[in-house]
Design brief:
Elements: H1 12-63
Length: about 60
Amino acid sequence: MTDAPSGGGVDAPQQSIQELTARVDALETAIAELREEIDETRRDDRRVAELYDLVFERLKSARL
C-alpha cells in the first residue's frame, strides 16, 4: 500500500481546484444566460406596457 495520490498524476488539492474552477466557470455562464433572459423579459414587459397604453388610448378616444 502506497501513499501516492490518485487521479492520474494530479494531487487531490490540485484536482479540487480544477473542479471548483470548472464549477465557477459553469455558474458564471449560467448567470450570464439568466441575465440575458431577465433583460429580454424586461424588454417584453416594456413592449406589453406600450401596447396596453396604445389600446387604452384608442378605446378611450373611440368612446369620445
